[in-house]
Specification:
alpha/beta; Nucleotidyltransferase, domain 5; 3 domains; five-stranded mixed sheet
Length: 299
């Protein structure tokens, strides 16, 4: 719908007759149908009479339907139970026989003060997401500073399961191996490991001469795990792990949904349906880890 100022401009210019209809429409950036509709409706009226008529007219579009109170209570309850976003909550309620769009869910959450608004609008990414087909085919790992300590996360690429994590005073190869050993003993041995060129994972060459492998590289080699290195200065390669770091920090420091990393990891793996998985079945990373396991790997 055009603003009051533009409508007044259309009517005034059409009445004066100095410009053609096409020129007026181009100046006001109005379509042909919009131009003639406003001319028919407001022809001969002054700015103040147009404002008065607009104030008395009904807003365009269908009137919004009132959301039943039981639906509103169900939305708030799901949010408190699962900490999920509007799309996942809408899917959950549809499974329970409550038909409600994710837009209405978002509106209810926003009115209840349960939406964490972004300080800056994020632009759509231009690259295409990639992922492995089977669980244990590829794990990603990285370090991040969190509350004065170093946090490491190991993520299964296919299922988005957080296979291991640890919080340490320093980011070292030994601590990386410790967390990886625990993850392997719990979930199994991956075929490949994706890391950056960080010193904890890779011994870079010095002055053009090849360096000897560090402890992490030797551990991967001894366990038959293929080491895949991300491109230099390209954090998107390990973007899934970076996203997990953001999730942990946001849920603890901004939204205050949880108080510890362990709580966030349990919620991510066992409770929250992941939007990159089978959302129609509200699949969690733990469920996807079992479903995507290769038949030769299953016990």
């Amino acid at each position: 719908m055009l603003s009051l100022r533009k409508i007044s401009f259309l009517v005034r210019q059409h009445r004066e007759g100095e410009l053609s209809a096409l020129q007026i429409r181009k100046l006001a950036k109005a379509s042909k149908s919009t131009f003639y509709r406003h001319i028919r409706q407001f022809a001969g009226l002054s700015y103040y009479k147009i404002r008065k008529r607009l104030a008395q007219s009904k807003p365009p579009g269908r009137p919004a339907k009132q959301i039943p109170m039981r639906h509103a209570r169900a939305v708030i309850q799901k949010r408190l139970e699962t900490k999920a976003n509007d799309r996942i909550i809408a899917k959950m309620l549809q499974k329970e026989g409550i038909k409600i769009s994710h837009c209405k869910v978002y509106s209810l959450l926003k009115s209840a003060g349960m939406v964490c608004m972004l300080s800056k609008r994020r632009n759509r990414k231009k690259w295409v997401r990639w992922q492995r087909k089977h669980s244990l085919s590829l794990w990603q790992t990285d370090w991040s500073l969190f509350r004065g300590k170093w946090l490491i996360v190991i993520l299964d690429d296919a299922s988005r399961l957080i296979a291991g994590w640890g919080l340490f005073d320093s980011a070292t190869s030994e601590n990386s191996i410790k967390v990886l050993k625990e993850a392997i003993s719990t979930h199994g041995r991956p075929k490949a490991m994706l890391t950056g060129h960080d010193v904890q994972f890779y011994a870079s060459s010095k002055k053009g001469k090849p360096s000897s492998k560090n402890a992490f590289q030797l551990f991967l080699e001894a366990n038959g795990i293929n080491h895949i290195l991300a491109r230099v200065n390209h954090p998107q390669t390990c973007g899934k792990v970076e996203r997990i770091f953001g999730e942990i920090k946001t849920r603890i420091e901004r939204r205050h949904d949880f108080s510890t990393v362990d709580e966030v990891v349990s919620w991510h793996n066992e409770i929250k349906p992941h939007m990159s998985l089978n959302l129609d079945e509200l699949e969690t990373p733990a469920q996807a880890f079992q479903r995507k396991m290769h038949h030769k790997t299953k016990v």
